[in-house]
Amino acid sequence: MAILFLAFIQGVLASGDVEVQPLINPAVVGDTVTLSLSPPAALKSGSWAVGKTLILTWQDNQQAVFAGYNGRASINFLTGALTLSSVTVADSGVYIVQSSDPQLQANASISVLETVSNVTLRANQTNLMELNSSVAMTCSVSSGSSLSVLWMNGSSEVTESDRVQLTDGNATLTISNVSRYDQGPFRCHVFNHVSNGSSDPVNFTIIYGPDSMALTVNGQNTTSFSIGSNLTMLCSAQSNPPAQLQWAFRGELVNATGPLLELFSVSEDQSGPYSCLAFNNHTDMNSNITTRIMIAKLSGTEQRAVSVWLLPLLLIFGFLF
Questions:
Q1: How many structural domains does the chain have?
Q2: Most CB atoms closer than 10 Å: which of 87, 155, 250, 319?
Q3: Sheet arrangement for strand 93-101
Q4: 55/69 same-domain check
């Protein structure tokens, strides 16, 4: 049979009229793969090989199966189709059929893939300091071959940048100088042509702030108010954990903490700069914002305007009563 195979190699003519068509490609580990000829050809003798490794040879209705394929490979004597059962990843390759009666040669590539299972994401730490910490995440699987890895932060795909590196075939994601927007949830999605899987999410606790402070008075941008007004000042700061807030008037701390400072029936001597001070005892950072409040009597023009506005209302109420 080996001599017969060498004889085939020595004068085999390539035929563009016949193609090898796999029944499934790619195949999954454990599948049975059949490689047929198209159009069908009645081959009296020939051989099948993968790369340079012989699988079997046949003549008429007799076949010889080579080591490694016993019990797995068989030939259809009428059509020359090869059937290979219980395929493994190692069965991937270029399959070549050759015949001298009639004389032809054809081939096709087959991929055998292992399905993805048990996708796991691990991080070397989960408590991070903004701009001072780096984190490395590793994506792994229990099984799978010819894998591609996609990283997600929430609903956004993670791509490389000056802070973000993907290594080890995208299996490792490293983020340097993390920001508050890197808190996650992070997932890795692993896939090949026959299966896919995603890891459980991983979230990070990122310590930052305080910064981006804001201060409003009575929910407005104005800072001038009349004597007797009630004022509610609201202070906010971006911070994790939430910042401790303290109020000051004219540079002196007042007996008020938290986001609200309320003043009732204010007088002129309460005019001046009001400050909100924020402190994060985890980052050991502080920030502040100041607004200057003016409290005064209504001017004559303003008083006349109020009187003109109130007069029709007083006439209406007087008429009703």
A1: 3
A2: 87
A3: 62-65, 53-59, 45-50, 93-101, 103-110
A4: yes
Question: 13 and 40 in contact (C-beta within 8 Å)?
Answer: no
Question: φ and ψ at 277, to 5 degrees?
Answer: -110, 130
Q: What are the C-alpha distances in Å from 181 to residues 36, 142, 204, 305?
A: 54, 31, 10, 51
User: How far is residue 47's CA from residue 318's CA, in Å, rounded to a whole number?
Assistant: 114
Residue whose pair of structure tokens reads 């096709």 in the numeric block? 108
* Tens digit of pLDDT at every position of the chain (321 positions): 343 333 333 333 344 578 999 999 999 999 999 999 988 888 889 999 999 999 999 998 999 999 999 999 999 998 899 999 999 999 999 999 999 888 889 999 999 999 999 999 999 999 999 999 999 999 999 999 999 999 999 999 999 999 999 999 999 999 999 999 999 999 999 999 999 999 999 999 999 999 999 999 999 888 999 999 999 999 999 999 999 999 999 999 999 999 999 999 999 999 999 999 999 999 999 999 999 999 998 654 444 444 444 445 444 545 454
Closest CA to 208 of 289, 127, 122, 125: 127
Q: How many angstroms separate the CA atoms of 188 and 157, rounded?
A: 10
Q: Is residue 156 part of a domain?
A: yes
> Do 91 and 127 fall within a single domain?
no
Same domain, 91 and 142: no
Contact, 112 vs 27, CB < 8 A?
A: yes
Going by C-alpha positions, the residue among 170, 172, 190 that lies closest to residue 134 is 172
Residue 61 phi/psi, 5-degree rounding, is: -115, 30
| β-sheet bridge partners, residue 101 | 45
In a domain, 131, yes or no: yes
Range of the domain at 31: 2-113
Rg, the chain, Cα only: 40
